[in-house]
């Protein structure tokens, strides 16, 4: 049986929780409590989108002679839509930043590794000084005087 035919057997089943769908809808401007039919349609749309994207990525992987899908296959599947491709690149950049930050932290004692301290240090300028200024010396400010 072709994989797409297997997808049809799951029609009508909800794949995402109501809370996930509600949060997504509310974040994109819907009311706080969305209607059930709205959540069902969104669930079906998202499921179909993910399924089609995975099938397209699988096609790319099989042409390359692989059984497993790599990230490059998903990028290739999104090549015609610059918005999708841009979002993927943005998420990869964030993941790279998180991974680099995790390397700086020593998991044994939760202290920053000595070799990474210099990477975190930055030079301070005069604008960075936190000198307490006397508020009472400013014109127009008189505290306790009437």
UniProtKB/TrEMBL annotation:
Q: Name one GO cellular component term.
A: transcription factor TFIID complex
SUPFAM superfamilies membership: Histone-fold
Q: List UniProt keywords, sorted A-Z.
A: Initiation factor, Nucleus, Protein biosynthesis, Transcription, Transcription regulation
Q: Care to name a GO molecular-function term for this sequence?
A: protein heterodimerization activity
One Gene Ontology term of the biological-process aspect is:
RNA polymerase II preinitiation complex assembly
One Pfam family this sequence matches: TFIID-18kDa
Localization, per the record, is:
Nucleus
Which range is the signal sequence, renumbered to this chain?
none
Which family does the record assign? Belongs to the TAF13 family.
Q: What is this protein called?
A: Transcription initiation factor TFIID subunit 13
Q: Which organism is it from?
A: Hyaloscypha variabilis (strain UAMH 11265 / GT02V1 / F)
Native organism taxonomy: Eukaryota, Fungi, Dikarya, Ascomycota, Pezizomycotina
């Amino acid at each position: 049986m072709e994989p797409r035919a297997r997808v049809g057997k799951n029609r009508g089943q909800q794949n995402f929780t109501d809370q996930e769908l509600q949060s997504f809808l509310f974040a994109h401007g819907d009311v706080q409590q969305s209607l059930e039919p709205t959540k069902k349609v969104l669930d079906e749309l998202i499921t179909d989108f993910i399924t089609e994207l995975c099938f397209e990525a699988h096609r790319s992987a099989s042409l390359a002679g692989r059984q497993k899908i790599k990230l490059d296959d998903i990028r290739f599947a999104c090549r015609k839509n610059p918005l999708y491709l841009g979002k993927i690149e943005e998420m990869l950049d964030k993941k790279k930043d998180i991974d680099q930050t995790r390397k700086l932290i020593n998991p044994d004692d939760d202290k920053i590794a000595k070799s990474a301290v210099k990477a975190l240090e930055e030079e301070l300028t005069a604008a960075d000084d936190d000198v307490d200024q006397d508020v009472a010396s400013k014109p127009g400010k008189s505290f306790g005087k009437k």
